[in-house]
Amino acid sequence: MRKVRLADLESRMGPASVILPLTDALGLADVAMNYYELDEGESTAFGYHAHENQEEVFYVESGTLTFRTADGPVHAKAGEVVRFGPGEYQRATNEHADRALVLALGAPQDAGATRSLRECDDCGGETSHHIELADDHDAVVAVCDECGNETGRYT
């Protein structure tokens, strides 16, 4: 058995104010788990994405998330749970002034290939992207696979 306090964990760099990686903290073997605190405009993901092998479940503890999906926006309020199957594209964003608290689970832990789409001004539209650590290790950056330009920087 393992027990952790969220207040004792260190947030990692990413698209939300707080991202607590619970997978390693709890020693999880079969499921990935993250806790998020999102201010207005922040997201749980670097882009509109799909995991090849992983289903994802989001529990909204407080606030409201808006999920971009292939079928249009889906709004999830406090107390609601949303599930995406392997291969389903989604991106959750907090579009409200109130901070959103979210618990995300993914299984299996190995998501397989992740396809991520973001807007690239240089390419003139939405393109595939990958995420990498900045050279000075002070940020995580989103990089367009087509032109190599940075389209997002997260500290």
From TrEMBL:
**Keyword Metal-binding appears in the UniProt entry:** yes
The cross-references to Gene3D superfamilies, in alphabetical order and at most eight, read: Jelly Rolls (2.60.120.10)
- Which GO terms fall under molecular function for this chain's record? metal ion binding
**Location of the Cupin type-2 domain:** 37-104
Question: What keywords tag this UniProt record?
Answer: Metal-binding
Name used for this protein in its record: Cupin
> Which species?
Halocalculus aciditolerans
Q: What is the lineage of its organism?
A: Archaea, Methanobacteriati, Methanobacteriota, Stenosarchaea group, Halobacteria
